Amino acid sequence: MLSLTRKADYALVALAELAQRGEETLSARRLADAVHVPLPVLTNVLNQLLHNGLVISIRGSQGGYRLARDAKQINLAEVIEAIEGPARLAQCCGDSGGLSISAHAEEQACNLESSCRIKAPVQRVHQSLRQFLSGIPLSQIAFDVPVALGFKSESGAPDGAAGKY
Amino acid sequence: MLSLTRKADYALVALAELAQRGEETLSARRLADAVHVPLPVLTNVLNQLLHNGLVISIRGSQGGYRLARDAKQINLAEVIEAIEGPARLAQCCGDSGGLSISAHAEEQACNLESSCRIKAPVQRVHQSLRQFLSGIPLSQIAFDVPVALGFKSESGAPDGAAGKY
DNA sequence: TTGAACTCATACCGTTTCGGTGCGATATTA
DNA sequence: TAATATCGCACCGAAACGGTATGAGTTCAA
What's the Å distance between residue A124 CA and nucleotide C6 C1'? Predict the structure, then answer.
């Protein structure tokens, strides 16, 4: 459920590695070695990250990649969207943001009445899901900061985060 | 990103419909009509829901389906997992719970050092993601209860829910 | 100026998953 | 016993995913 694609995994790992290297410019080859991902695959991933402004590239010899911003300024939602494209929790209609292509609202799904009775609440869930991911900076992944206020074990109802969707 | 499969959509819509019907036993055919999903597809979905204890079935004529529990007792995580199988946010190793088959820990991925430096924090994210979904009851989807404490608009940092992964 | 070391962009392909269909078996009721 | 259901597979086409290959452009250093 809600799993990431493997490429998104790679992106996360690669970005974390770059974050740990700080200012250093790392060639795709060396990054691939460090992270144990086949070079051509990593190349693809890095390109997508480039186009989404998450890394910057320096061409030519001695070139390579570097984070475009500080690791604290990059969040999980960005990374995932960079690789997997804009989101939609359910097929049911719209995204919310870059809604452009939603106009190809074609054949199926949302001309159904009762399924769209679902639409509003599902979208709300999706919204808060996205905000949840937006709140997690890359730095937390890269440096594995043990977070101050974790979840309160298994006290049945999860605290805060879940209650207010 | 993080999108549900279409079948999970159908499951959600069907369950919501059942929730609204209360005690009524609804045949697959009538449910399919109500929800505008092709009958054979819905049949598959209902079977999966049956095996995961979310609905109960009554066979024979006048048979049909009904929620196995009150809508308040069914949460989103259950529904999604029933359809899409147990979760893993990242390929990176384990689930956490029914970890059995994780032993087929085969060819790839997690024999890599640096990628597994990622493992712990990613799993923590996944954990809280799951708890988040566990906190949303079917009743909220079915009856679209407008929630008391929504998100505070676009105040940059999302409140509560996101801060504490 | 030449060549090496890179990035960049795209096209391609095999495999898996997804969405959907069909059918035979079984169970229940009238 | 006939009608109406669920049940449980197995099947198929299409799309997405994961991975590979290749050619072109860019920069730097000798």
Answer: 45
Cβ-proximal residues to A81 (8 Å cutoff; 6+ apart), any chain: A52, A87, B1
* C-alpha triplet B114, A62, B115: angle, nearest 5°: 10
Q: Is A150 on the interface with B (CB under 8 A)?
A: yes
Contact B67/A at CB under 8 A: no
Do A135 and B163 lie within an 8 Å CB cutoff?
A: yes
Q: Is B151 on the interface with A (CB under 8 A)?
A: yes
How many other C-beta atoms can be found within 10 angstroms of the C-beta atom of residue B3? Answer: 17
A 10 A CB-CB count for A5 gives: 14
pLDDT in tens, B101-144: 222 233 334 444 444 667 777 777 888 888 888 999 999 988 87
B58–chain A nearest CA distance, Å = 24
B98 to A39, A163, B87, B94, B102: CA distances (angstroms): 34, 25, 10, 10, 9
- Estimate in Å the CA A4 to C1' D14 gap, whole number: 22
Residues A157 and B72: beta-carbon distance below 8 Å: no
Q: Report pLDDT digits (tens) over B65-89.
A: 999 999 999 999 999 999 988 766 6
Q: Are residues A6 and B81, on separate chains, in Cβ contact within 8 Å? A: no
The full DSSP string for B101-136 is: GGGG--SSSTT-HHHHTTHHHHHHHHHHHHHHHHTS
